[in-house]
Design a protein that fits this description.
Order of helices and strands: HEHHHEHHH
Radius of gyration: 25 Å
Strand content: under 5%
Number of domains: 2
Shape: elongated
Bound molecules: zinc ion
Distance between the termini: 87 Å
Number of strands: 2
Length: 221
């Protein structure tokens, strides 16, 4: 009867756990189990952070065309510091997640992961309703035709453009969160999915904060 060696290269131990579909020794079997039970998602948050920075460099006109910056920045005349709130918020949230998940970590079982992703989607759903209501209210109350009863107009045109543009960006990002993605029904795929959804959700919340900052800036000017 031939002796079975551990499948790990350069390991001279006798193989065990053949019945578990593996031919590793005890040490290497446990090591592999541990590795397979971990999730490496740092690249999700790294990519999310770089994209967030790129989006703002583009909005502020530091890269690419100036047209957007020319429409949005006048709303912040004298109060440009307010823009740091939404930009910093998205940056900090993604950075915290990146630090938390820098080292690969384990994920929960199937039922817990299903509950967690349901929680994410329920929050996104409520946020979609609230944000939609805000957009409706903003476009209804803030876009008065010239000469309408409310004088002076509630918001100068620049402020209005910034509020509606950021609000639209927020809703657009939210659509990626509430969309359906049919991953294989295992806890690892579900855990990956919730990390992938965290990035657009963070963008959506931060753009919502940007819409608010534009409203405040318009009120202050
Ligand atoms: Zn071994």
């Amino acid at each position: 009867m031939s002796e079975l060696k551990c499948a790990q290269k350069d390991c001279s131990n006798e193989a065990q756990y053949i019945d578990a579909g593996s031919s590793y020794c005890q040490d290497h079997f446990q090591k592999r189990e541990q590795q397979q039970g971990q999730l490496s998602v740092r690249w999700v948050y790294l990519a999310g952070l770089f994209l967030w920075i790129a989006i703002w460099l583009w909005i502020l006109g530091w890269i690419g065309p100036q047209s957007l910056a020319q429409k949005i920045l006048p709303a912040y005349a004298g109060n440009q510091g307010l823009l740091a709130i939404p930009v910093g918020m998205g940056f900090v949230v993604l950075l915290i997640n990146l630090c938390l998940w820098w080292a690969p970590k384990g994920y929960a079982g199937y039922e817990t992961e299903v509950k967690v992703i349901e929680f994410v989607e329920r929050n996104a759903g409520w946020f979609l309703i609230a944000s939609g209501a805000f957009l409706t209210a903003a476009s209804f109350f803030l876009t008065r035709p010239p000469g309408a009863l409310l004088t002076p107009p509630l918001l100068a045109r620049e402020g209005l453009v910034a509020v509606l543009a950021f609000e639209a960006a927020s809703l657009f990002c939210l659509l990626f969160v509430v969309s359906l993605y049919w991953t294989p029904p295992n806890p690892k795929s579900l855990a990956r999915l919730r990390h992938l959804k965290t990035v657009p959700f963070t963008y959506a919340v931060s753009f919502f904060a940007a819409a608010f900052s534009a409203l405040v800036a318009a009120a202050l000017s």
